[in-house]
Amino acid sequence: MHQKIAVIDERTVMLGSLNVLSQSWTREVMLTMRGAYFARKLLAHEHAETFARPPRCGRCKGAEIEIRRRKNGTWYWRCYAAPCKTTPSGRTDAWTQDIRLTSGR
C-alpha cells in the first residue's frame, strides 16, 4: 500500500492512503487509532527518532538538510544550501551522508 502515516501527540495515529491535508473526493482511506503503545511501536518502526535529528552539513556546517532515498532503498542526508551545492568550478555537488538505521523492528 502506498501509505501515509501521521502520529499526533505520541498517542493518536492516522494510517492509510489518503492525503489528509489535500483530500479531494477520492476513494482512498485513512484510519485513526488511539494508543500510546501502538504509536511508539510505529515511530520506532519508521525510525522517527533518527529522521527527526538531521546532522549539520559536513561541508558548510549549515542546517539546511533534507532526507532523501536512493533507488536501492537506502536513506541519506543531503545539504540543499546554495553555497554548499556549488563548487568553485560551478559544478553542483551537494554534501551527502548515508543514514545508518538500527533494526529496532
Portion of residues within helices:
10-25%
Q: Which structural class should the secondary elements be placed in? A: alpha+beta
- Please tally the β strands and state the result: 6
The geometry reads as elongated
CA gyration radius, whole angstroms: 18 Å
Spell out the blueprint of helices and strands.
Blueprint: E1 4-8, E2 12-16, E3 30-34, H1 36-45, H2 48-51, E4 65-69, E5 75-79, H3 82-85, E6 96-98
Antiparallel strand pairs: 1-2, 2-3, 4-5, 5-6
Can you tell me about this structure?
The chain is of the alpha+beta class and 105 residues long. The chain has two domains: 4-49, no CATH class; 54-98, no CATH class. It is built from three helices and six strands; from the N terminus they run E-E-E-H-H-E-E-H-E. The strands form two sheets. Strands 1-2-3 form a three-stranded antiparallel beta sheet, covered by helices on one side. Strands 4-5-6 form a three-stranded antiparallel beta sheet, with no helix packed on it. The chain is elongated.
